[in-house]
Amino acid sequence: MEDHKSLVERLVRIGVIKSEKVRRAAERVKRHLFVPKKYKDMAYADTPLPIGEGQTISAPHMVFMMNELLDLEIGHRVIEIGAGSGYHAATIAEIVAPIDEPPDKWGYVVTVEINPTLSTQAYYNLKEAGYLGRVHVINMDGSAGIPLLDEVDRILVTAAAPDVPGPLFAQLKEGGKMVIPIGPPGGFFYGQELFVVEKKNGRMIKRRVTEVAFVPLRGRYGWS
Ligand code: SAH
Q: What is the model's pLDDT at position 188?
């Protein structure tokens, strides 16, 4: 079974992890703090794992690939739709708000979870791992954006949507980027694809990246 160090090294070697910052975040966040007890010994296998409520923590290669696509910088304000275990949010926090930089340079991550059991679990996982000052967990339907927040630099969606939700795109700053899987429930056999969406001069520019398999987005702009 792969350990933390060899997992990160392999993902660098095969080109999934490209940048120093994504690598550093991958090294810093301990995935075993975010998976259920019975899967602890599989925490550094490159595979999704069940986290309860029929949901999964994504495979590490998918988390880091999305982080590369997000093109994150220190100071960025980021929304994640689909907190799940809280792991992905922690890896983003390590880039936008690194602990060795002064807090006035920090951005933040607001991660939204529709399932109350999972949002509570994400909160305690993030607390245990030391991320509560940099990641905020909200229990609501995030598919229509977050009414309390201003526009943000980056948006990550970790559940497959029918299309780019209009209100979410509206919450993106000019020049901002969103990474989002789009396609029907059921995974890549049914045609889910990962997209990078950019806002340029107020317009949407969509780039398809690869085929993927995510759990379905629920809520107002999700699958019913
Ligand atoms: N990023 C997570 C894995 C996400 S799995 C991690 O690092 O562990 C996708 C999650 O999206 C599930 O927990 C699911 O409950 C949640 N979800 C689905 N639809 C949602 C919505 N409309 N708003 C917020 N969360 C949603």
A: 62
As a whole number, the mean pLDDT across the chain is 96
DSSP labels for 165-207?
-HHHHHTEEEEEEEEEEES-TT-GGG--EEEEEEEETTEEEEE
Catalytic residues: 58
CA of 158 relative to ligand 1 center, distance in Å: 6
Distance CA(45)–CA(23), nearest Å, equals 17
Q: Which domain holds residue 205?
A: 66-211
Nearest atom within ligand 1 for CA of residue 221: 22
Report whether residue 57 contacts ligand 1, using a CB cutoff of 6 Å.
Answer: yes
Q: What is the pLDDT of residues 82-104, one digit of tens each?
A: 999 999 999 999 999 999 999 99
Number of domains in the chain: 1
Evaluate whether residue 92 is within a structural domain: yes
Q: Is the pLDDT of residue 186 over 90?
A: no
> Would you say residue 23 lies in a domain?
no
CATH of the domain at 90: 3.40.50.150
pLDDT at residue 224, as a whole number:
83
